[in-house]
Amino acid sequence: MLFRRLGILDRLQITTTSVHGHRCSLRRVSPRNSKSFDTACLQSVSIPVAIGLIVIMWPILTKLKYETIGAVFLSRRILIHIALTMSLNWIVGLLLMLGLA
């Protein structure tokens, strides 16, 4: 009942999550059938799951107001946040992954 009232993208998110859960549980139950799941994979990434996730994320990414990007970078506070995020992602994260490897 509730599933039918949801929009198509909300239904796609629920369906993708449930398919992924079923796939993981089936791999544990019958490991010899795992080769049949890998037929639609590219570099160990399932192509149907990747397409479904891109379709789910597309509306979120398109709600960005591109005309306001220039005004955002004029704020010093935002620039500090961007610099902090970039340094955490590209320096601290890189060193952490290097240390863990």
UniProtKB/TrEMBL annotation:
GO molecular function annotation: antimonite transmembrane transporter activity; antiporter activity; arsenite transmembrane transporter activity
Keywords: Membrane, Transmembrane, Transmembrane helix, Transport
The UniProt record lists the keyword Membrane: yes
Residues making up the signal peptide according to the UniProt record: none
Cellular component, GO annotation: plasma membrane
InterPro entries in the record: Arsenical-R_Acr3
Transmembrane segments: 37-58, 78-100
Protein name, entry field: Uncharacterized protein
Organism of origin: Serpula lacrymans var. lacrymans (strain S7.3)
